[in-house]
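dumping this here before i forget
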Amino acid sequence: MARASTTSDAFNAVAEPRRREILSYLAGAERPVGEIVEALGMPQPSVSKHLRVLHNVGLVHMRCQGRQKLYRTNAQAIRPLHEWAGTFERYWQHQLNRVKQRAEAMARESPQAMNVAAPKVQD
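structure:
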């Protein structure tokens, strides 16, 4: 079976870890390519290739300022990714609730075990 192209849609595009890194970095502000290269320690051709993919699927906007290309995230295009991942939040929330319940049960069973006394300092 043929593998889906990583440039066909947003979900395939973000399957590549370096592209997710770039998106995360761009989440803070609009940035020029050179700054992305420096901050992420990636070769410029690689950053440009990944930005081109992200731009082609609509996850980032690009504008030119003189000779510089500036990129920023496209929140509207990222929304479907967020909504899809949100469908799994109940699993994470369930796990967090279990941890909380377990900690509370342990505290009820042995309150002194939860209070670790500081060592006494001798004069």
